[in-house]
Amino acid sequence: MTFRAALDAAGRAVFMAPLRHSLRGAAAPAPLLVATAFLCLVAVEVSGELARTAPPVLFQVWGFERSLALFGALVAWAGLVCIDAGETRPFAPLVTLQLLAAAILELLYGPAIGLPGWLLETPPDGLYWGVWGGFVLWQGLVAWRLAAALTSLEAFRTGALAACYVAGMAYLVAQSSFDVFWTTDWEVHESYDATAAEPALDVEEVLHAQHALVEERLAGLAPERAGVADLYLVAFGADATQAVFRREVEFVRELFDRRFDTARRSLALANEEGGTGERPLASRTNLADVLGGVAAKMDLEEDVLFLFLTGHGSQDHEMVVRYPELPLGNVDPTRLREMLDEAGFRWRVLVVSACYSGGFVAPLADDRTLVVTAAASDRRSFGCSNEAELTEFGRAYFAEALEETRSFEEAFASARATLHDREVALERTHSLPQISVGAEVGDKLAELQARLDRSVALAAPAR
Length: 463
Hints:
By secondary structure, the chain is an alpha/beta fold.
């Protein structure tokens, strides 16, 4: 069997066209041809993922792990087919043709998975999931056809073997332990155009104004209510170079004011390039001052703090705080824990949305704290762009899950499942969001949720 003949047969199998020649009598491909077919699949995967990854891109050599695992599964499946058929001759042709067919399908998958985004402004997740599932089933049909063409097995048996192939491939692709070849490198700093039309920033004036701005915002907060477990929100949008973080902070504040009774008990810090200077900066100093001021408004034994931080994260587990021309320091989990302890918060919900944010979990966790992060300590999160309204985690957790429930734990479980499915469909390395629930905080948050649900029920018009 030559490469040209193998490619022709694989293409005809993919597009359900009649085969030119019977495959049962074809000569077995040489080992070099099998290796070439595997390399074709890898090359298509590498180039396809590159085309679907937003720049700046970073190559991950560990992406080969998934390709090797899929190759191993394909070899095992071909062996199972041959054992069931009681013949060894079809083994090498089946492996070769299925590899080439997978490469052809991968070429088609890239445009297909991008089509919903071209046709719709906000495609439903089910559409991406349907495209991915359709291609998995298509691979199963190709496997069924090739097994039938190369062996004398009955149609029912080849169909059952093809179903095994589909199940195995779907399981492997959905595994969160495998990396992809390419990922967006969010640690590459965006260039700042110093000659832009925006006037040069008066650094001294901006920094000098911060204390008054923070005090003004704190003065507008409502005090705690005796006998009521109030929720206070502090939202922190760390990076001015991408507007999505400012939008996310504003969205979360509006959501909590509407659904979690934080109106006049919420405060946002956000860095915004070209902003008016009327909002306090998201800086480490302002965050410490705000936390101290919010604590002074609360009944620390009774009320709950919800702190949300969103931005880019570094591999050494720091939240990157950035505003062009301003010398702002990053927020690390140890210093953040010190701020919270110094302010005296007893009940805490801490949500950190950033790459590598899982590194915040252990330093912040305790019995009275719930910690949620958008990614594991060694994983990236997604959706950081000027065009996006929210990050991927922000959309799944806040815009979707917390619109349906007031339980922060239930919302996390829902968001984690949603993100897993989206990342499978888009062939991304799984972000693996993390959660830590303190031994005592669960009951406290259940009490808060019950109060909020009761208040909504009482406000509902009678029927």
